[in-house]
Design goal:
This protein has about 230 residues and is α/β, with parallel strands linked by helices. The protein contains seven helices and seven strands, in the order βαβαβαβαβαβααβ. α4 runs parallel beside α5. The structure holds NADP nicotinamide-adenine-dinucleotide phosphate (NAP). NADP nicotinamide-adenine-dinucleotide phosphate binds next to α1 and α4.
């Protein structure tokens, strides 16, 4: 089985790649800026990395032309910025929204002809598609709302191709950054979450594996958020 993961250099992307490897997949992944990290992960876990800006159609087209037929695409690349909308520059807005929306579209567009019947696409959304976590990320939250709606509608469209499309919506992830003592977003998250902690990247990787393995599930968004949304 073969999987392609965008943003394999991120905390979450790395966890997903490692889990796929453990489960017998040949894994192809991408980096955008962090070539050093990509080389480290590649050497340690035997993952093949390509440079990819998910907003650059010609590069997306080229990378997918180099790939073998795929069983799984994970659209994990995504960026966030925190700012009041009144202070947000158009460049900042466009940068976040383009990577999180256009990037998902382009990777799906060029992956679809490569995905084998019975294969799947899993998009990484966010609980921010459903709730405002820190009141400073309306542009990011809306971009993840796109991912949620796109997942449902693409699942409907690709039923005839026998390709399933699902999404995982993480709550706040445990990262070196969130482990710093003074993170106000972490405080807000942990206070409301039923399970009083952040989410381990490996727990999102588990959900990705579950969605890929269960062939009766399509068009679903699974919130993996320590119960934040119902807290
Ligand atoms: N962290 C959280 O608490 C959280 C919560 C909910 C959802 N999520 C979602 O989970 C996913 C991973 O999050 P993360 O926090 O682990 O990410 P991260 O550490 O912030 O890393 C961002 C990833 O996106 C890649 N990237 C940046 N610009 C790109 C571009 N133009 N084209 C292609 N790739 C690009 C980066 O590659 P380089 O490293 O090479 O630059 C990196 O792999 C994202 O979709 C994010 O929105 C995260």
């Amino acid at each position: 089985m073969k999987a392609f993961v965008t943003g394999g250099t991120s905390n979450l992307g790395q966890a997903i790649c490692i889990d796929l490897k453990k489960n017998g997949f040949e894994v192809f992944a991408t980096f955008a800026n962090n070539e050093v990290r990509a080389q480290e992960i590649s050497a340690k876990y035997g993952i093949t990395f390509y440079h990819l800006d998910v907003c650059d159609e010609s590069e997306v087209k080229k990378v997918f032309s180099l790939l073998p037929p795929l069983d799984l695409l994970v659209n994990n690349s995504g960026v966030c910025s925190s700012n009041k909308q009144v202070n947000l520059t158009l460049n900042e807005f466009n940068s976040v929204v383009k990577i999180n929306t256009t990037g998902v579209f382009l990777c799906c567009k060029y992956a679809i002809p490569k995905i084998v019947k019975g294969g799947s696409i899993i998009n990484i959304s966010s609980i921010n598609a459903s709730v405002s976590l820190c009141k400073r990320t309306a542009h990011f939250d809306a971009s993840k709302g796109f991912v949620t709606a796109y997942t449902r509608s693409l699942a409907a469209e690709l039923g005839e191709n026998r390709i399933r499309v699902n999404a995982v919506a993480p709550g706040l992830l445990k990262t070196p950054y969130t482990e710093e003592k003074e993170d106000p977003v972490k405080e807000v998250f942990v206070k409301r979450a039923i399970i009083k902690r952040t989410v381990e990247p490996e727990e999102i990787a588990d959900a990705v594996m579950f969605l890929n393995n269960n062939h009766a599930i399509t068009g679903q968004i699974i919130n993996v958020d320590c119960g934040y949304l119902v807290g």
